[in-house]
Amino acid sequence: MKTIISAIMMVMFSMGMNAQNRLENAKKEAMENKELILLSFSGSDWCIPCIKLHKNIIETEDFSKLRSDKIIVYINADFPRNKKNQLSSDIKKENASLADQYNPKGLFPYTLLLDSDGKVVKKWEGLPSENALAFSKEIRDLQQQQTR
């Protein structure tokens, strides 16, 4: 009986811990590599500015280099509406938790640059006005300021 109760408690505890898994992993990676965390709130299948953000910035080579050069850890908190694009329940819960913490007004797109402790360094409400190169340069500059 004790084994069953222990097993149930472990499962319940791990479910609660899983809600912030991506952010906690990102914080750990950011701390180890002196990176920043880019957290993007999007509606990938209904929010036109979100779709433009991903197409014109996130999916570009300039942005990809931020990740490969260990400048940022990227998290996309997506809130799709179409049934065919629905996320797993774990990811939905995690995205909702991230929104509660960082996006209580429910803005889309809403992009945050965080330090390795999860503190907000910079915010972009809506579609950034910069092109991918300027957006990436701004993040590089902010990351360099953080490591001084």
UniProtKB/TrEMBL annotation:
Q: Report whether Cytoplasm shows up as a keyword of the record.
A: no
Please give the PROSITE patterns that the UniProt record associates with this protein: THIOREDOXIN_2
Residue ranges of the Thioredoxin domain? 1-144
EC class (word): oxidoreductase
SUPFAM superfamilies reported for this sequence: Thioredoxin-like (SSF52833)
Which EC number(s) are documented for this chain? Answer: 1.8.-.-
CDD domains tied to this protein: TRX_family
Q: Which InterPro entries match?
A: Thioredoxin-like_fold, Thioredoxin-like_sf, Thioredoxin_domain
- Does Hydrolase appear among the keywords? no
Q: Which Pfam families match?
A: Thioredoxin_2
Q: From the UniProt annotation, give the residues forming the signal peptide.
A: 1-19
Keywords of the record, alphabetical order, are: Oxidoreductase, Signal
One GO MF annotation is: oxidoreductase activity
The name under which this protein is listed is Disulfide bond reductase DsbH
Species whose genome carries this gene: Chryseobacterium carnipullorum
Origin organism lineage: Bacteria, Pseudomonadati, Bacteroidota, Flavobacteriia, Flavobacteriales
